[in-house]
Amino acid sequence: MANADVSPGGVAKSRGPALAMAKSVAKSPTLPGPVAKSSVDNSPGGLGQLRPSRDQVHRRAFSGSVPFRRNDDTAGGRQARRRSVDSQPSSHSRQIVGPRTIQHPLMAHPWFQLNLVRMIKLLLLVLVVVALVLVGCATAQRKLLYYPTHHDGANGLVPWRDGDLLIGYAREVANPRNVWLMLHGNAGQASDRAYALPCFADDDSVYIMEYPGYGARPGSPSKTSFNAAAAAAYRSLRKRFADKPVCVVAESIGSGPACTLASLSLPPDKFVLIVPFDTLAGVAADHFRYLPVTWMLRDNWNNIAALAGYRGPVEIFGAEADTIIPIRHARALAQSVPQAVFHRIRGGHNDWSTSGEVVIRANGGNGET
Questions:
Q1: Coil, strand, or helix at residue 224?
Q2: How far is the C-alpha of 66 from the C-alpha of 254, rounded, in Å?
Q3: Mean of pLDDT values over 349-369
Q4: Cα–Cα nearest to 226, from 207, 209, 212
Q5: Cα 356 vs. chain centroid, distance in angstroms?
Q6: At residue 286, what are phi and psi to the nearest 5 degrees?
Q7: Are 333 and 341 within 8 A, CB to CB?
Q8: What are the helix (H) ranges across the chain?
């Protein structure tokens, strides 16, 4: 007990290194809460060594602090422990952060980041392919829809000119009772339609318009060019025969540009539509059932919409054996026009002129409604 002294009050005081270590441990920041008293181990095997109290050992075990080490009780050790304690956030403190962007986990994936450029290139490639497909469809559509010929035969008809431009062929009579503008089908050319003349009255004049890109007429076939040519030809006849009824007859695809004339300020006096369609997209859907033809078809005439406001007489002929434009399309068009007279005729799409059932008159029409 040479290193211990007893004061007058009877309290044992540690001397030497043991006393300094006891004071250091009592003030150590690694021991949260009230400072616990330590005792000096004066046993034979531990004379002068600091022995932590039971309370200190218990708090160390649950606070995650390092085990008690005597050799760490230096000025540098105490500073290191203080820095360690200060750097650890308190369980009662709340970390304040600024606004942050919420990122989808997929965007942080390395594969996504590495392949983003490839994905953009692939998307652009798909768009280019789609554009090329649409252009190709438009080209293929015109090849499937229009079949012009370009021979020089007139078949007994006289050329019909607007100035120097050949716009068709005609059968002209002096002082005609009625004037007819005829718009033919998608194949051949205007001079081929001489076969239709027996269907007209002998005292009517018939002017068969040539489509742009057909026969000797310059231009390219399309819905736009057909509609413009039909309007110009009709106005020319109206101007020339101001005191005569000017009527329109059309077959097959010619019913498309013909029906657009119903919206003019001075529409035709009568329409006669032979093997027509209600909408061209509906006919195309019959032939290409597994394609989105409504989106792909650029030259899409809608005869139901075109005749919606027309109040003049309309006659419609539908062929019962027609496989090109089935008769239900002609019937649907007739049902959409309240004043229309529907005729069901025998034969196929191109047999109407030889059946004898089609009679084209300005005043007539008793048929199946």
A1: helix
A2: 98
A3: 84
A4: 212
A5: 49
A6: -65, -35
A7: no
A8: 17-26, 54-63, 75-87, 110-145, 223-240, 255-259, 280-287, 293-296, 303-306, 327-336, 352-355
Return the closest-CA partner of residue 358 out of 199, 184, 145.
199
What average pLDDT does the segment 98-114 reach? Answer: 58
What is the band of 79 on the pLDDT scale with cuts at 50, 70, 90?
Answer: low
Among residues 183, 277, 274, 171, the alpha carbon closest in space to that of 221 is found at 183
- d(C-alpha 183, C-alpha 193), whole Å: 10
Q: What is the DSSP letter of 156?
A: T
H/E run at residue 243: none
Report whether 156 contacts 182 (CB < 8 A).
Answer: no
- Residue 234's closest CA among 253, 216, 211, 207? 207
**Of residues 218, 77, 244, 43, the one with CA closest to residue 148:** 218
Query: What's at 339, amino acid-wise?
Result: Q
Rounded Cα–Cα distance for residues 348 and 202 (Å): 26
- For the chain, the average pLDDT equals 79
pTM: 0.65
Please enumerate, as own/partner, the contacts of 361-369 that have beta carbons within 8 Å and a separation of 24 or more.
361/201, 362/177, 362/178, 362/204, 362/245, 362/247, 362/269, 362/270, 364/315, 365/313, 365/315, 365/341, 366/341, 367/315, 367/341, 367/342, 367/343, 368/342, 368/343, 368/344, 369/334, 369/340, 369/341, 369/342
* Ramachandran assignment for 347, one of left (phi > 0), alpha (psi -120 to 50 degrees), beta (any other): left
User: Cα 299–277–262 angle (5° rounding)?
Assistant: 80
Taking alpha carbons only, the member of 171, 249, 155 closest to residue 205 is 171
306 in Cβ contact with 259 (< 8 Å): yes
Separation CA 241–CA 170 (nearest Å): 15
